[in-house]
Amino acid sequence: MSEAATIKDRKSKRGWTGYHTLAALVGFFGVIFAVNGVMTYIALSTFSGIETQNAYQTGRDYNERLEAAAEQRALGWRVSFDETFAATPEGADATVAVQVLNAEGAALTGLAGDLTFWRPVVRGEDVVATLTETAPGIYSAQASLPARGHWEMRLLLEREEAAPYYLEKRIWAGGRDSDG
Predict the structure, then answer these.
(1) Which residue, among 115, 121, 180, 177, has the nearest Cα to 150 in the 3D structure?
(2) Could you count the other beta carbons within 10 Å of the beta carbon of residue 49?
(3) Domain for residue 145, yes or no?
(4) Residue 163: which residues within 8 A CB-CB, separation 6 or more?
(5) Percentage of residues in the chain with pLDDT exceeding 70?
(6) From CA 87, how far away is CA 91, in angstroms rounded?
(7) Which DSSP category does 16 fall into?
(8) pLDDT single digits (tens) 115-152
(9) Residues 6+ apart with CB under 8 A from 139
(10) 168 - beta bridge partners?
(11) 138 with 106: CB under 8 angstroms?
(12) Residue 135 domain-assigned?
């Protein structure tokens, strides 16, 4: 065997070289940067970042909101929800009954209120339903939600001599069990 043949054999058996390492690193980080770029584009194009229109003023009113929450707790009202959701091709039909009791357990009558169904992931799908008193201390509302999924139910109850009562509850509307 000639010397040229043995040199050729050694070169063909060299295996992993610096060029292979460079190509692997560039390929690896190239994939990482490409995936991060796609995810950043999707995140920025689907969420405006605005959850509160007047964030500055809301921040300035923080202490007043804390005081209102303390006043609300001092009322001692007990609020319970009984909600049912029926899936529809477009979304879900919601029927909600709200029972409101005072600190002594007596039914609170004569309240005016609204239920707002707010969709955390999609802007502009809010649905507002007016509560009507169907029995002493029980208020009901019905709404057609444009989509199934996670919603936030925001309750606002008002009475002439008291500050507004505000409560939020996360719900699952239609499709499958809320525990799933």
Answers:
(1) 121
(2) 6
(3) yes
(4) 68, 71, 72
(5) 87
(6) 6
(7) S
(8) 999 988 887 889 999 999 999 999 999 999 999 889 99
(9) 97, 98, 100, 111, 113, 131, 132, 133, 157
(10) 154
(11) no
(12) yes
Same-domain status, 29 and 106: no
Return the beta strands (E) in 51-148 as ranges: 78-87, 92-101, 112-118, 127-135, 138-145
Residue 43: what residue type?
Answer: A
Q: Which tokens in the block code for residue 135?
A: 């029995």
Whether 159 and 89 share a structural domain:
yes
Residue 83 sits in the same domain as residue 41: no
pTM here is: 0.64
Residue with tokens 């707002």: 116
DSSP three-state, residue 161: coil
Is there a contact between 174 and 86 (Cβ–Cβ < 8 Å)? Answer: yes
Which domain range does residue 164 map to? Answer: 76-173
CB count in 10 Å sphere of residue 118: 15
Q: State pLDDT tens for residues 50-95.
A: 667 777 888 888 898 899 889 888 888 899 999 999 888 888 999 9
